[in-house]
Amino acid sequence: MFQTEYDVIVVGGGHAGSEAAAAAANMGSKTLLVTMNLQNIAQMSCNPAMGGIAKGQIVREIDALGGYSGIVSDTSAIQFKMLNKSKGPAMWSPRVQSDRMKFAEDWRMMLEKTPNLDFYQEMVSGLIVENNKVKGVKTSLGLEIKGKSVVLTNGTFLNGLIHIGDKNFGGGRAGEKAATGITEQLVGFGFESGRMKTGTPPRVDGRSLDFSKMIEQPGDENPEKFSYLDITKPLVVQRSCFMTYTSPEVHDLLREGFDRSPMFNGRIKSLGPRYCPSIEDKINRFADKDRHQLFVEPEGWNTVEMYINGFSTSLPEDVQFKALSSVAGFENVKFFRPGYAIEYDYFPPTQLQHTLETKLIDGLYFAGQINGTTGYEEAASQGLMAGINASLKVQEREPFILNRSEAYIGVLIDDLITKGTEEPYRMFTSRAEYRTLLRQDNADFRLTPKSYELGLASEKRLKRMEEKQNKADAFVQFFADTSVKHDEINPILEDKESSLMKQSDKMFKIFSRPNITIDDMRKVASVESYIQDNNLDTEVIEQAEIQIKYSGYIEKEKNNADKLNRLENIKIPKNFDYSKLKSMSLEAREKLNKIQPVTISQASRISGVSPSDVSVLLVYMGR
Ligand code: FAD
Fold it and tell me: Are residues 610 and 529 in the same domain?
């Protein structure tokens, strides 16, 4: 049945698997996507939304690299918001509310149009491995499919166990079977595995809600979009979300179910996402708070189904129903599905290299929730990187690694493989030490040229990026070169209560003042005519504005990043034996022997390795 030997086999068609399959196939590798249910490609298991703080930056990075998540997020969006717009541009984070069904459908259509990509629906039950090298996969029906490299993206499916109150049953997601066989085989090969937990709220019938008792949350007045390509357009019409609150009465009703809660009666033992706690966890941990926000989010353009963000729970369904019925606007609520929690296997990601290839088995890659992360964006970006690297390996080319100053994706992967994670890992802006460099507006400048070199980003994408960069650079230069007369600028400065000019000066200096915006500068005739004459769009104008206003910070971070990159260049020999460095702490020696960092810089980021341990290493390396 499968005569061909594939270059890359991707197991699992979730967010990680879909990006991995697209990347490998687009890089010219003969690729197979095997997944348990082809109807559920890139299914959003939890909230119908993409992006958000730090996650929005990741989606833009995926797009800049030629992945599909940004495009699909745009085509399936029902609402767009740029979060944190009142803060500096390093914090601006795009987020869309998505049409869940359209998201999955558009992903499938994008994949079907991708050359070099085959599909097969079945459960993979094991790997074919010879001499520590992967040779393919085995399916539950006994088929053997040969592949030069394999990317595992099993999500929450490995030995998944669903909990609702005191009931539990095997499943990878509500209504879907768990995947078995893989964990046991990998543990047999010497891999360490662990258990994690996550949960989801109930979905309800929007026709049963009274929205007049809630606060409307419309999208942005001037919505933007994710993809840097012009094949998608910003939304013209949007759907609103709504906000309401729990109350002490709701909390009391929820508490009535605590003795049947798998979270509190010890049935769920694994750790869940700290920053996405269940409602029972919130009222337990923050007992002094008498209300919590709930966001009522439409599941799509046409469906009446609503997602209750903030009410994730694994309490018994009767308790969920009683408590939610007491929330303002929910008095007559009808449930579509109750909330639930799920426990699943993951593999501590310190067992991976920066390419996401496992250290133990050659040609085997892990991406997504299997690595202990949570979130679609985190999963998709790992899938993209694993797909690229699996393909590069087959083509006998150099691996593709992004460092911490180049991308959030670099931060994510470095954190995972260097520090590991004991609870579901999600991205935050605070995890990135160079966040002024890693903005959502410049992901294309940072990453598209690299991806074009790999053969992934199209020439069209590169040309578009270069044109934007040239126009923005020229506009910045215009501000640096052009002066404005003090009698023209002073009325504008006076309006903003900014100190007045005594003589004419360069506009760059004036524009750098914190309270002077591009709208103020556009009141200067020469600025407005430059914009009109050169036909500059909002994206270019915004880019120039950020470059001018934050030039000091950007320069400083670039210098710091250069310093780090110098340490990044000091390589440590493969399989280095740290036991012989007796002047290093025992903890450091143990951790370093286990993780085997590739560079001094990576060694310095391992928890338990102190600056003095790094000095010992530097002396040993002759630095
Ligand atoms: P998934 O999206 O889980 O996809 C895995 C895919 O692999 C599926 O298509 C599955 O069919 C397939 N598969 C698995 N095993 C096999 C096999 N052996 N053979 C063939 N195919 C296989 N994220 C958050 O950020 N916040 C949350 O609050 C949150 N809550 C969640 C609640 C629940 C109940 C669930 C299930 C997930 C939740 N998530 C949450 C996680 C989010 O869904 C995942 O992070 C994201 O979907 C991970 O993507 P993935 O590609 O790694 O895996």
Answer: no
Query: Binding site for NAD(+): what residues are annotated?
Result: 272-286
Say if CB 605 and CB 418 are below 8 A apart. Answer: yes
Considering 318, 339, 360, which residue would you say is the last residue of a domain?
Answer: 339
For residues 16 and 416, give the distance between their C-alpha atoms in angstroms, rounded to a whole number.
15
pLDDT tens figures, 471-496: 999 999 999 999 999 999 999 999 98
Question: Do residues 216 and 299 share a domain?
Answer: yes
Site to probe by mutation for ligand 1, drawn from 46, 125, 344, 347 as the one with most ligand atoms within 8 Å of Cβ, is: 46
Q: What is the ipTM of this complex?
A: 0.98
Taking only the tens place, the pLDDT of each residue in 255-294 is: 999 999 888 888 888 888 777 889 999 998 888 999 999 9
In the structure, which protein residues have their CB atom closer than 6 angstroms to any atom of ligand 1?
A: 11-17, 34-37, 40, 45-46, 123-124, 153-157, 172-173, 179, 182, 198-200, 273, 276, 342, 368-369, 374-376, 379, 426
CA-closest residue to ligand 1 atom 50: 155
HSE-CB of 562 using CA atoms within 13 angstroms: 6
DSSP 295-342: EEEESSSS--EEEEET----S-HHHHHHHHTTSTT-TT--EEE--EEE
Q: Which of 69, 154, 309, 345 to mutate to test the pocket of ligand 1 (most atoms within 8 A of CB)?
A: 154
Same-domain check for residues 208 and 335: yes
| pLDDT score of 497 more than 90 | no
Residues 549 and 505 in one domain: yes
pLDDT in tens, 165-207: 999 999 999 999 999 999 999 999 999 999 999 999 999 999 9
- Residue 394 to residues 29, 298, 398, 439, 580: CA-CA distances in angstroms? 8, 43, 10, 33, 36
Last residue of a domain, one of 320, 339, 358: 339
Taking CA atoms only, the protein residue closest to ligand 1 atom 13 is 12
Give pLDDT, residue 3.
67
499 and 542 housed in the same domain: yes
Binding residue ranges for FAD = 12-17
